[in-house]
Specification:
alpha/beta; eight-stranded mixed β-sheet; six-stranded mixed β-sheet
């Protein structure tokens, strides 16, 4: 079969990988010269630890798919480094203890570590904390390297073509397939058209499927210069318990009731996530903003909060901050929905809305779409 995929982010590219792996031909269109949305503005984390029970099997399968892809495309920078969620208060410790004793703890690779064992696993963590919840199943990829690496791999098959700086203007469904017209006046004929628009919920997406149950979420992040030593795992703080459904339960209810976030963290709905890039710098975030219109500039207070928490856990000053950015991603309104799929016509589908799970779950979303369409 011949597929046209509209959208060059990780979700569109994961669908291209699934289709090419099944022997189909793929043409992928990206409106920018290079994808510059949520795919390259995230942590690159393959995050199993906080997924809900309903999502856990998907997350584990997605991680396995990332590892399989990495065997063929090592340039994506896959690292099975695991994570440590650092706890600094008795209330956070109770949540970590409940998670480590939970029914899915073994599947997630949870172990609750005392400070000495935390430092043995990740010697860069020389700061102040009570314990660390280790998740051996968490991993990371290099978000800014993954797309070009995957495209080069797909191109080498002879069954894939990428067209950057190409905006799809219309999609026409016919009896035998569909035709995509781009802003260069070219047409592409396909048996199946998959539209993976990211957070572009209007324009062509709205023309094809109208309003769909998704929203945009804005975040702020930053990147440091090289740390000068390995950060052997990804690192999260106890505030992250509040934002992942996998930690739901009475201990989390107590945490939310008895331990308020700092005013800055509460205002910006913050957690600390930190991962080391292959070049040695740290990607640190993030915030959550849901009410549009979003500001076009960034606030400094969240960055100061993140620096303070990271330095407390590391027990040292952070390297200089070399860049800061904001980004937006598409999130399904139903928290139990892995991704929103809407059928526009017989041969045309729109797929979006994985939320902050996009980098983790894109591989399995692509496989599930291929199964759904019997590709």
């Amino acid at each position: 079969m011949r597929l046209v995929i509209i959208g060059g982010g990780i979700l569109g590219t994961a669908h291209a990988v699934a289709a090419v792996d099944r022997g189909h031909d793929v043409v992928q269109l990206e409106r920018e010269p290079e994808a510059r949305g949520a795919t390259v503005r995230n942590f690159g984390l393959v995050w199993v630890s906080g997924r809900s029970e309903a999502e856990l099997d998907h997350a584990l399968r997605a991680r396995a798919l990332w590892e399989k892809i990495a065997a063929e495309v090592p340039r994506i920078g896959f690292r099975p480094a695991g994570s440590l969620t650092m706890v600094r208060t008795p209330q956070e410790l109770a949540v970590a203890e409940a998670a480590a004793a939970g029914s899915s703890a073994e599947a997630r690779g949870f172990t609750l570590l005392e400070p000495e064992r935390v430092r043995a696993l990740n010697p860069a963590l020389r700061g102040t904390f009570l314990a660390g919840l280790h998740c051996s199943q968490d991993a990371a990829v290099e978000s800014r390297q993954a797309l070009p690496a995957l495209r080069d791999h797909l191109t080498a098959t002879g069954r894939y073509a990428f067209h950057p700086a190409t905006e799809a203007r219309s999609v026409t469904d016919t009896e035998s397939g569909a035709t995509v017209r781009d802003d260069h006046g070219r047409t592409f004929h396909a048996d199946v058209v998959l539209v993976c628009p990211g957070d572009a919920h209007n324009g062509l997406t709205r023309e094809l499927v109208g309003a769909i149950p998704v929203r945009r979420v804005r975040l702020q992040m930053m990147q440091t210069a090289a740390l000068g030593e390995p950060l052997t795992t990804a690192v999260a703080d106890g505030d992250s318990f509040r934002y992942y459904p996998g930690y739901a339960g009475s201990a989390l209810d107590t945490l939310n009731r008895d331990q308020a976030q700092t005013p800055t963290a509460a205002e910006h709905k913050m957690q600390l996530l930190c991962v080391q890039r292959l070049h040695g710098g740290l990607t640190i975030g993030d915030t959550h903003e849901y009410a549009e219109p979003f500001a076009f500039d960034v606030d400094e207070a969240p960055y100061q909060h993140l620096e303070s928490v990271a330095e407390e856990l590391l027990g040292r000053k952070l390297p200089p901050i070399v860049r800061r950015w904001a980004g937006t991603y598409s999130q399904s309104l139903d928290p139990d929905t892995i991704a929103t799929r809407a059928q526009a016509d017989r041969h045309v589908w729109v797929i979006t809305g994985p939320g902050g799970r996009g980098m983790t779950l894109s591989t399995v979303i692509g496989e599930d779409t291929a199964d759904l369409l019997d590709l």
